[in-house]
Amino acid sequence: MKFDTPAGTNPIDRLTVVGKPTDRIDGPKKTTGTAPYAYERHDVAANPAYGYVLGAGIAKGRIASMDLAAARAAPGVLAIVTHENAGKLGKGDMNTARLLGGPAIDHYHQAIAIVVADTFEQARHAAGLIRVDYARAKGRFDLDEQLRAAPLKGDSSGEGSAAPPIERVGDFDRAFAAAPVTLDQRYTTPDHSHAMMEPHATIAAWEGDKLTVWTSNQMIAWAVGDLAKTLLIPKENIRVDSPFVGGGFGGKLFLRADVVMAALAAREAKRAVKVALQRPLIANNTTHRPATAQRIRLGCAKDGTITAIAHESGSGDLPGGGPETATSQTKLLYAGANRLTAMRLAVLDLPEGNAMRAPGEAPGMMALEMAIDEMAEKLGMDPVAFRVKNDTQVDPAKPERRFSQRRLVECLERGAREFGWDRRSATPARVRDGQWLVGLGVAAAFRNNINMKSAARVRVSGGRVTVETDMTDIGTGSYTIIAQTAAEMLGVPLSAVDVRLGDSTFPVSSGSGGQWGANSATAGVYAACAKLREAVAAKLGFNSADVTFADGQVSAGGRQVPLAQAGDLSAEDAMEYGDLAKKEQQSTFGAHFVEARVHALTGEIRVERMLAVCAAGRILNPKSARSQVIGAMTMGVGAALMEELAVDKRFGFFVNHDLASYEVPVHADIPYQQVIFLDEVDPTTSPMKAKGVGELGICGVGAAVANAIYNATGVRVRDYPITLEKHLEKLPATAMA
Amino acid sequence: MEDDAGLAISRRGMMAGSAASMALAGTATAISAEAQPAAPAPTMPVSLTVNGRRRDLSLDTRTTLLDALREHLKLTGTKKGCDHGQCGACTVLVNGQRINSCLSLAVQHQGDEVTTIEGLGTPEKLHPMQAAFVRHDGYQCGYCTPGQICSAVAVIDEIKAGVPGHATQDITRRAPLTREEMRERMSGNICRCGAYSNIADAMAEVAGAKA
Amino acid sequence: MKPFTYERARTPAQAAAAVARTPGAKFLAGGTNLLDLMKLEIEAPGHLVDVQDLKLDRIEKTREGGIRIGALVTNTALASDDRVRRDYGVLTRAIVAGASGQLRNKATTAGNLLQRTRCPYFYDPNQACNKRKPGSGCAAIGGYSRQLGVIGTSDACIATYPGDMAVALRALDATVETVNSAGAERRIPIADFHRLWGDTPHIETALAPGELITAVTLPKPLGGTHLYHKVRDRASYAFALVSVAAVVQKDGSGRLAIGGIAPKPWRVEAAEAAMPQGAQAVAGRLLAGARPTRDNAFKVPLVERTIAAVMAEAKAA
């Protein structure tokens, strides 16, 4: 099915199942521990051996020699695979660094060996017996230093965030020079780790030249393609199965070392092999969100009109990698006649940078929305009012191109009312509660919507419906919204729908990334259901185009037949997209409000209240969509207050590479979180009229936290995370005991 | 071969030398490279009661309680998130108390009663806490969820039993069953999906908590 | 993890003898830190002597009017004990500020005293560490050292003792009781229990090889207001940047021990005399000779500010 004209009324609009805050259909499995994740598939491969991955001990250089003798002789060891015996390997399209290193080492903890043994304990110990001689080479590990001579570089994150190397609209320099009120500030965000709770894990088994991997991956078709390219075998010989994914956040978009090493190990050991990347390896072995250094310049008229806006960002990556597209949102979020965005990319020999939840916008909004807060203060304007004043209903670079929906102003104003924004002191550091300084902060939320081609197969048999698609559920609620979609389309109760996901033998879906999954995957199911409806109607002898599927009945023209009488029918189709997204800009909007408190003496920071108001098209399941938003807000609090992969610039690695030292928020950090969805449908996105929310929720949160801290203390910290030492000695004087 | 040959090491620290050669074993204590026929690792019998059923195992002494459950008893509801006591996904109840099963050897649990998520309820017959998690969407990817639920059940018991917590104002009295108390005590269970606010709602409902 | 044999001892002397007799043997109590390190082969014992059956899990009154805490009393049990909550509140508060509920259920009093540093270079076997591998150098010096020590450190090691419980024990003047394989008992003042690193950072405590902790005793209660203020980035389940254990009397005198800054809970009795003069005077004396790094220089003012916060809380209490 091709979607190239805005959707009219369709069966989804009945909203008897879609749009309801439904409990997840996979909830009973997840809450009882019976949902099977990759490493746990005792049902799929008999007697698997255990693999343990050894990561490189240096960041850059070569393996001079490896001594495997002690490891080979260790009890239970079945095989060891290194670059010396892995055979020729290719590299996946989505990978920057090779997944098996050696003899050249491209980054710290790059996989250089896998030891296979009968038991996990044996494999782990034997891996420690491998002795490696390295020739260490000089690496580039300091982003600031490398950015000094880094070239301009444009890119698309592939996740809806894109920016050319440099883009100018109007004459920024002149407008900025002429502006009566200006801001020119530098902001930095550090490297972030996805830190999903399920480690990257795979069971691999060969049958002849056919390979099956049970793994944890967001994008099944990408995994198949890149595994084929890496192992240099035909795609047709590979099956990837990933029905449950224990968190991804972009860290499992791509083929990773667990899959490749398990496959190589299984081939060498001639036995199924299971592998989970050990936690201390994950931060350096896998991908991360790259650090950014950003410069923002704003020029305003005295009435608060933005006349000049420039956003430049620099980031680094391994050779052949890409930039963090942190300037992307700045092209679209605010009005302003004179604009400049630019990105620079430095080469670094740190681990591979890549997508993490809202790549581009997440760090970009952390900077931009702090700059907007600073400018509002310079102008003496309320930061909500300043944002409202500079709203635009058209793409500022192409005024003829409107937004399909844009209700940023309503998000801001509704949020301000709900949150009690009028109680905020415009002057910072004025509100105290005992030893605590209290402040309120706001930020806009913005993230583009993307639609991806997505296919599904739907079968009806005896009145029960089965949906199959290689779509994944990474915690997003895919199982449930897909079931809701099929139930609505075919007029059956939710309990009559079975959903099977994540298997590469199923039709290729959009996968989970870029907050495209909800709208795209359900639209694919819509297409397959529409086709199935035709088949059912034909079989039951309806020739009208106006057939209703409801309450388990198929009816038209006064005749009604139970769906169950259609017997066993199935249909497969995909939703494909025309150029509607080019004609109108499809984006999602929101506003974040935060109350934070800062200990006047110790500088400790705690978040007390949070509210997000989102306008993101039709909300297919308000319960799971709300969870996506609060989860993103939580990750945003982490980015604001604690998350930072600390770089050792001498040795070139992330030092805090476990979950004790890379701190992410815990229960005690997160207060009650309120989410409001504006009632919106967007007929330009798909017949579902939906957009994504999972990434919108993180965009801007960090800045809202930062702005609340500033409002509490009067100390502006522009380098994330805002840890206490960055404002400690500048806090307002207080009586010291 | 010499360890760290060519690296400039001073007592004041360690400098990264360019193009220096260094040798590293996979771990700090790796023994000499010469292959010695190694004896098989010691094994021991362990008997424990898991979810009411006695289980007799013979295990490598290195086997953690977590791996005994997941790999030997195929009770995979208990999760391995970090294997180092840093995430809480492996939380189970041992003799009624919650612990990190990753930081406990199976042989330490001879004769113990272990309750895992599978012992609390089944999809057909959910424990009230499991049902509350479903109702409040107290999870997303589901991977930390069994640990969260085991912890949640134990936290309410701990508060009722009078165990003090970091959020307790007056430690000479029993802590009240509030959201703040529960949030603090749940902090050893990380949820990267960020379902905390919903988990707090689920627990409050089960506990009949004050605001 | 290196293969190891395992036994359970029945008496403290038997346990001490078992460890003394077996090369590479270690005691195993809760195991929450030892197993963590064994998985990385930072600890690699060939034999474990499990002490859980030694019946050292009681808290009793002493003749001197204090309490004796069995070495195997769990953190949860110790924090929950009514006498501790009433008379030694700083200890309850320090314990519940540490780790997580799960870990506190397993961790023991003796094990907690013996927990090793959380220096990230110590935890990464690829990096040089004089504590892990004597003579290999210290990668933390000149590296990422935000969490590390500012005082009592050396040119060989800048790690900290990471625990909370011991900081309170230091303020309370606890004594560590031990037994060795010959059955000889010893009482070690908490002040002498943890060593400064000097040139031998791999030697962390005053314990001799095979010496087993049997109890920790506390002198009779001090009265006063008991506080523990732990400063960290996230609100829970994190090691301290700085922590302050305080017992403050009505007249403003009292005791202060500091965590997160040194190889041991840091207490300078002479500094406490300055408490009536305020936090600045106290901190100045406490931290005389501090050698912070660029990353952790903030700990110096943070100690002063946290003391100020604690003194203000004491006044308000």
TrEMBL record, chain A:
<dbReference type="InterPro" id="IPR000674">
    <property type="entry name" value="Ald_Oxase/Xan_DH_a/b"/>
</dbReference>
<dbReference type="Pfam" id="PF01315">
    <property type="entry name" value="Ald_Xan_dh_C"/>
</dbReference>
<dbReference type="InterPro" id="IPR016208">
    <property type="entry name" value="Ald_Oxase/xanthine_DH-like"/>
</dbReference>
<dbReference type="InterPro" id="IPR037165">
    <property type="entry name" value="AldOxase/xan_DH_Mopterin-bd_sf"/>
</dbReference>
<feature type="domain" description="Aldehyde oxidase/xanthine dehydrogenase a/b hammerhead">
    <location>
        <begin position="32"/>
        <end position="138"/>
    </location>
</feature>
<dbReference type="InterPro" id="IPR046867">
    <property type="entry name" value="AldOxase/xan_DH_MoCoBD2"/>
</dbReference>
<dbReference type="Pfam" id="PF02738">
    <property type="entry name" value="MoCoBD_1"/>
</dbReference>
<dbReference type="InterPro" id="IPR008274">
    <property type="entry name" value="AldOxase/xan_DH_MoCoBD1"/>
</dbReference>
<dbReference type="Pfam" id="PF20256">
    <property type="entry name" value="MoCoBD_2"/>
</dbReference>
<protein>
    <submittedName>
        <fullName>Xanthine dehydrogenase family protein molybdopterin-binding subunit</fullName>
    </submittedName>
</protein>
<dbReference type="InterPro" id="IPR036856">
    <property type="entry name" value="Ald_Oxase/Xan_DH_a/b_sf"/>
</dbReference>
<dbReference type="InterPro" id="IPR049648">
    <property type="entry name" value="PaoC-like"/>
</dbReference>
Automatic annotation (TrEMBL), chain B:
<feature type="domain" description="2Fe-2S ferredoxin-type">
    <location>
        <begin position="44"/>
        <end position="120"/>
    </location>
</feature>
<dbReference type="InterPro" id="IPR012675">
    <property type="entry name" value="Beta-grasp_dom_sf"/>
</dbReference>
<dbReference type="InterPro" id="IPR036010">
    <property type="entry name" value="2Fe-2S_ferredoxin-like_sf"/>
</dbReference>
<dbReference type="InterPro" id="IPR001041">
    <property type="entry name" value="2Fe-2S_ferredoxin-type"/>
</dbReference>
<keyword id="KW-0560">Oxidoreductase</keyword>
<dbReference type="InterPro" id="IPR006311">
    <property type="entry name" value="TAT_signal"/>
</dbReference>
<keyword id="KW-0479">Metal-binding</keyword>
<dbReference type="GO" id="GO:0047770">
    <property type="term" value="F:carboxylate reductase activity"/>
</dbReference>
<dbReference type="InterPro" id="IPR002888">
    <property type="entry name" value="2Fe-2S-bd"/>
</dbReference>
<keyword id="KW-0408">Iron</keyword>
<dbReference type="Pfam" id="PF00111">
    <property type="entry name" value="Fer2"/>
</dbReference>
<dbReference type="Pfam" id="PF01799">
    <property type="entry name" value="Fer2_2"/>
</dbReference>
<dbReference type="InterPro" id="IPR052914">
    <property type="entry name" value="Aldehyde_Oxdr_Iron-Sulfur"/>
</dbReference>
<dbReference type="InterPro" id="IPR036884">
    <property type="entry name" value="2Fe-2S-bd_dom_sf"/>
</dbReference>
<dbReference type="InterPro" id="IPR006058">
    <property type="entry name" value="2Fe2S_fd_BS"/>
</dbReference>
Automatic annotation (TrEMBL), chain C:
<protein>
    <submittedName>
        <fullName>Xanthine dehydrogenase family protein subunit M</fullName>
    </submittedName>
</protein>
<dbReference type="InterPro" id="IPR016167">
    <property type="entry name" value="FAD-bd_PCMH_sub1"/>
</dbReference>
<dbReference type="InterPro" id="IPR036683">
    <property type="entry name" value="CO_DH_flav_C_dom_sf"/>
</dbReference>
<feature type="domain" description="FAD-binding PCMH-type">
    <location>
        <begin position="1"/>
        <end position="223"/>
    </location>
</feature>
<dbReference type="InterPro" id="IPR036318">
    <property type="entry name" value="FAD-bd_PCMH-like_sf"/>
</dbReference>
<dbReference type="InterPro" id="IPR005107">
    <property type="entry name" value="CO_DH_flav_C"/>
</dbReference>
<dbReference type="Pfam" id="PF00941">
    <property type="entry name" value="FAD_binding_5"/>
</dbReference>
<dbReference type="InterPro" id="IPR016169">
    <property type="entry name" value="FAD-bd_PCMH_sub2"/>
</dbReference>
<keyword id="KW-0285">Flavoprotein</keyword>
<dbReference type="InterPro" id="IPR051312">
    <property type="entry name" value="Diverse_Substr_Oxidored"/>
</dbReference>
<keyword id="KW-0274">FAD</keyword>
<dbReference type="InterPro" id="IPR016166">
    <property type="entry name" value="FAD-bd_PCMH"/>
</dbReference>
<dbReference type="InterPro" id="IPR002346">
    <property type="entry name" value="Mopterin_DH_FAD-bd"/>
</dbReference>
